[in-house]
Amino acid sequence: MEAKNKKAVASRLCCLCNLRRPVLKRPKTLQQICRECFYEVFEEEIHQVIVQNRLFKSGERVAIGASGGKDSTVLAYVLSELNRRHNYGLDLFLLSIDEGITGYRDDSLETVKRNEVQYGLPLKIVSYKDLYGWTMDEIVKMIGLKNNCTFCGVFRRQALDRGAALLKVEKLVTGHNADDIAETVLLNILRGDIARLSRCTSITTGEDGPIPRCKPFKYTYEKEIVMYAYFKKLDYFSTECIYSPNAYRGFAREFIKDLERIRPRAILDIIKSGEDFRIATTTKMPEQGTCERCGYISSQKWCKACVLLEGLNRGLPKMGIGRPRGVNGDHNKETKKPGSVAKSIESKQCGSLDF
Amino acid sequence: MQFTLEFGGGLELLCDSVKIHKVNINLLNDSDILTMKDLLSWVRTNLIKERPEMFMKGDTVRPGVLVLVNDCDWELSGQLDTTLEDKDVIVFISTLHGG
After folding, report:
1. Which residues carry this modification: 1-thioglycine (chain B)?
2. N or C: which end of chain A has fewer CB atoms below 10 A?
């Protein structure tokens, strides 16, 4: 017993301050650290990512894509904290999308409304119903539970841009974390989606579009985000979307988590691999243009959202699912322009994972 | 022995949507210690009402489920080998839901 206690005491001091009892093993460094040091390194690392990548300019209006989930809640909290502490000079807003999913989004929006008060950040909610005339509940009623995540993902991506335009912000930040990005790298490899593979690790995307997006949590482990939210008692919502059993992404996620358990660095290493891929100049990339119907960025005649919407409104919900066909011509019109920044807006299926 | 078990991050849905459970667990065999390994198998049998695969994989929690014993990451106390004491508070949080 004596020996056991000694051993416990020896390993029981934070390896940063050497004063307090550690409460967490950092996946990034395997260091055992106490709560106070954890808050400090967690926030400081995000600050360094923001500074080193010059994510913001003083005076900018910035929208935080807020779902009410753990990542965006922690992002809203940390970003408003850092904005105050380091005088970023940012005007921060919360931007939420109401997909119209009863029992899921209506509940999570209540969380965002509380966050609005808790963090003193103005909130804007834009709904699929207002933007497209359809709620996800109505879409699922019509198309069933197959491909519904495609609709949701495509619509969300545009909805965020439109909401950002309404807020007149210069930038949109999202809570995508290191685990999400590693998972997306893997998925893009599995799908052979070279265009997305080449951009999914960028910390800022869409700089040539209307509203650039950035991911301050690019190097932040999900474990630390959840621990931070837990220790700080942040108010977040955690229920799986009732419509989203996205099996393929689920497998990738589970694989990443299995790897993390064996070697936590695997997550950062996968991101590094993603960053360091060089796409052969002979690879055909989609050419970027604008949608003839709504003017949104599109590599096709019509953007994906317009194709999907047309299908819904005409009662042909299969339209636009799978490889481009129909309005946009029989063949995938992907052509040359090696190295051009690909920007087909067909979104990642499911969840809030848009890259 | 008495424990307070807390389920969060969506895991509460697996046990009748109740987040906090005050439980009393008798020592299993003759041994006088109870480890996290014992507790997990007790939880799986007695508290998890549906989809146990969302909570466990093999004899431990599913990767992506965080465990805290008295507000301390169980990776610091030996994970499955963590020895529990009366009135310990054990928290399980899933990281696998939403963003």
Report:
1. 99
2. N
% of chain A at pLDDT higher than 90: 57
Domain boundaries, chain B: 2-94
- Partner residue facing B93 (CB), from A71, A226, A239: A226
Is the pLDDT assigned to residue A232 strictly greater than 50?
yes
- Residues from B contacting A (CB-CB < 8 Å) are 8-10, 13, 62-64, 66, 68, 71-73, 75-76, 91, 93-99
Q: Is A151 exposed, middle or buried (0-12, 13-18, 19+ CB in 10 A)?
A: buried
Q: How many CB atoms lie within 10 A of CB A233?
A: 6
B68: chain A residues, CB-CB within 8 Å: 23, 230
Q: Do A23 and B76 touch (CB under 8 A)?
A: yes
> Alpha-carbon distance A93 to A288, whole Å?
30
Q: Indicate the domain borders of chain A.
A: 38-279, 286-349
Identity of the residue numbered A193:
D
CATH topology of domain A38-279: Rossmann fold (3.40.50)
CB within 8 Å of A221: residues ≥ 6 apart: A26, A27, A28, A177, A178, A179, A264, A267
pLDDT at A97 over 60: yes
Residues contacting residue A17 through CB under 8 Å, at least 6 positions apart: A34, A36, A37
Q: What is the mean pLDDT of chain A?
A: 85
Rounded Cα gap, residues A298 and A316, in angstroms? 21
- Cα–Cα distance between A202 and A222 in angstroms, integer? 18
The answer to whether residue A180 neighbours chain B at the CB level (below 8 Å) is yes
User: With contacts defined as CB-CB under 8 Å, which chain B residues touch A348?
Assistant: none
Strands A123-127 and A91-98: parallel
Class of domain B2-94: alpha beta
* CB atoms A108 and B95 under 8 Å: no
Give the position of tokens 């923001």: A50
Phi and psi at residue A110, to the nearest 5°: -60, -40
Tell me the per-residue pLDDT of A318-334, one tens digit each, with 9 for 90 and over: 777 765 444 555 444 44
pLDDT at A245: 63
How distant is the Cα of A200 from the closest Cα of chain B, in angstroms? 17
In sequence order, what are the beta bridge partners of A205? A213
Give A97's DSSP letter. E
Range A9-28 average pLDDT: 88
Q: Return the DSSP state at B62.
A: P
